[in-house]
Structures are given as C-alpha cells and as structure tokens.
Write a structure and sequence with these properties.
This protein has 154 residues and is mainly alpha-helical. It has 7 helices and 2 strands, in the order H-H-H-H-H-H-H-E-E. It has a two-stranded antiparallel ribbon.
C-alpha cells in the first residue's frame, strides 16, 4: 500500500524502491496488480502450498489405519508404500498421520529377563506362606515402592 501512496504522490520508481526497501521488479509488480484488480488484489495472499501426493489416497489410508492402526511410523510407511507405491520419509509419514488426527502412543515393554516359572515358584514357596501367616495375625508385612511405603496390619 505504501507503494501506491508514494506513486500517487508522484515519486519515481527509484525513490519508491529506496523508501520501501524493495526491488524495482516488486514496485512494478505491485503497480501492475493494482491496475488489474485494485487494492483487493494487492491484499490477497497467494502463497503456494504444495499438497502431498498421499492426500490423493487419504480416504483409503485413513480407513486402513482405522481398521488396523500401525504400531510405528515405519510400519505406516511400509503400508503406505505397499498400498500406494509412494515412498515417503518417516517425517512425511508422521506429518500425514498427524493430519489424519492420529497421535503417537508411548508403549512399555515387558522386561526380557522376566521368568514366569521363577515368579510362580516365588509366589507358591515364599510369598504365599507369608501372606497366609499375615492373615492369621502371626506376621506383619511392610510393602515398599520407590515413591510410597506403608506398613500393613491385618
């Protein structure tokens, strides 16, 4: 708008460039756009926003992910490549999944060293008899965790 103001005051293009800190081509383009469409044309934002090629397959992928959610971005990436033949980076797949409204979930792991047989033997041989003794009033049990510790009396 400043370009139009300075032009209306009769300033030459070189002076308008200097005052507005823009290139000569920009001054000419602003004036040309004003002649073609008025002030409304100058106010209009015309940014180029490229759309992902995956958007063409959005409905199919959304349905597929809803029926069988991928466990990881890499799994989603492989499924997208298999179903659409589009090879995308993990970051692009993550953005696409976020666009679909999918959120990443944190998952926990079962310790690999856990031995169910040893745990069952501990409950039967050690913990079970102590709990029975506690129920009969012959023992007190003190339970402790890193954050909470409490003594129980039954």
């Amino acid at each position: 708008m400043e370009v139009l103001y300075f032009k209306a005051m009769g300033l030459p293009h070189g002076e308008i460039e200097r005052l507005c800190h823009i290139a000569r081509a920009t001054v000419v383009r602003y004036l040309r756009e004003y002649q073609e469409g008025g002030a409304g044309r100058l106010r209009a934002l015309r940014f180029r926003r490229p759309e992902s090629a995956m958007m063409e397959y959005r409905d199919e992928l959304e349905k597929s992910f809803a029926e069988n959610p991928p466990a990881s971005v890499n799994e989603a990436r492989e499924r997208i490549e298999r179903e659409t033949r589009l090879k995308r980076s993990p970051a692009a797949v993550r953005r696409f999944m976020k666009n679909l409204g999918m959120d990443r979930r944190k998952v926990g792991m079962v310790p690999a060293k856990a031995d169910p047989e040893k745990q069952e033997a501990f409950v039967e041989q050690s913990l079970g008899p102590r709990l029975a003794e506690m129920e009969n009033g012959g023992r007190e049990i003190f339970l402790s965790t890193p954050r909470i510790s409490c003594g129980l009396r039954f």
